[in-house]
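Q: What does the assembly look like in three dimensions?
Context provided by user:
Components: two
Sequences:
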Amino acid sequence: MNPLEITLGILTAVGGFVDISELVFAAQAGSGYGYALIWVFAFATIGIMAMGEMSGRVAAVAKQPVFNLIRHRLGLKLGLVTLIASLVSNLITCAAEIGGAAIILHLLTGAPVMLMAVMMMAVLIGTIWILPFKWIERSYGLLGLFMLVFAVALIKIHPPWGAIAGGFVPQVPSGLSTTELIRFAYFGVAIVSAVMFPYEVYFYSSGGIEEGWGVKDLPVNRLTCIVGFALGSLLSISILSSSAQLFTPLLADPQLPGTTALEVELPMGRAGLLLALVGILFAVAGAAIETCLANAYSVAQFFGWEWGRHKKPWETPRFTLAWIALFLAGLAIVLTGVDVMKLVEFAILFSVLVLPLTYLPLLLLASDRHFMRKHRNGTLANSVGWIYFAVIVVAALAAVPLFLLTSGGQT
Amino acid sequence: MSPRDKIQLMSGLLDLPILDKDWRYCGIVDDIEFEESGENALRVKALLVGPGAYRGRLPGWLFSIVRWIAGEHISRVPWDAIVEIGSAAVLKVSGDDYGLHHAEDKARRLVPKRGAI
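A: Here is the predicted structure of the complete assembly.
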């Protein structure tokens, strides 16, 4: 693969890293706890790097995407539970992304949010129908790079770099009441869930198969996961840090994606605001495509249908009908008028519950000598993988009580 | 691995994707049919593919839902038609020979054949 292709792949990973839940939770984490949750972003990013790399390696070597493995390793019953849970999680996430994109379009044009949601969905369906996989992934990923304006804005406000660096050290802020500690823990779990969303590995590993990865692509897979995800995560950390610097003194709680864009307007004016909104629009719209396709991939792989957007839509008819139906279902949720931020909270909750069921079969197969041969997990990958698996099991167990105790982070 | 090798059947074969000779997905190994082969021995007769094969693998109420949504069709793929077992079971013939593309062909009528690059 030539250097241009590698660079484009990494940039696509950067632009496609941030989605609406990361955007919202990063901004809220910054305004609520300063820099104290940066380490959770960093920790979860290493987790998604490790798991993403494994899913790409398995796709390249065993030529099997994640949901085939889930069915084969967990069996029909537990596999079906995982499928249904991930469908619900991804569908709610997809609805949240469509709703978020509609809000941004509303801010940009002044047109009604519901009309913008319908328009957005028509554009997304048209995009997937017309463009082959690589173009879909690249166009939204690269246009999402407008989000880099958040990093520029952070530099312009001259933040306390020492304090930001200190945020990478695991910590719990001192002097918090029990209620505040519980809310801090909820934010921690939510950030792990938002960064390690299961749809990301479904999409990434299926994307590897769409692009026909083989053993020769393993170095690129590793580079994309490590460099692309690290830079994408730095973007999230920029949003958190700007929020800590600008919103905390104002006691502002940035609950909407549009509010987050104000981080850029304050230091860079109207042009900055526009760039931030366009960046958010493409990042969130790209995530809507990823969640919807991830769902269609999951169903098709679970039942052994023909799938993939490297083929024409009529060559994979059940897969095509699935992603169209899932988009329509996502739009229907938005059109009920439900609060988009509520959708984000539920998406985070369902995702964290699905995480262990997604990553267990992946870990088992990535270390399987028979399928992976010399490309199976080494000691480092296995150790990192199992440590993260233990963490996400604890996060999954803690998620529902924390969600209930904090009313979804509101109290 | 060849179909003649000893494998852990239930864990190695069950729920494995099936690909045909043209590398098209043909479903999943939903169940395995055995036949008697000599005294106290069983031999795999066929792989069963389709929602009807979920009977006995899912709780009754869940199977009723599956049957309501997808029916209870079963396709039988003779063991002799398998040429390789790895991360998928690979057929030496087209999936059409065993009706494995029937549902895909039916859905194809609903999808317009234009507009995509």
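Follow-up: Chain A touches chain B at residues 62-64, 68, 71-72, 75-77, 79-80, 129-132, 135, 300-307, 312-314, 317-318, 320-321, 371 (CB under 8 Å).
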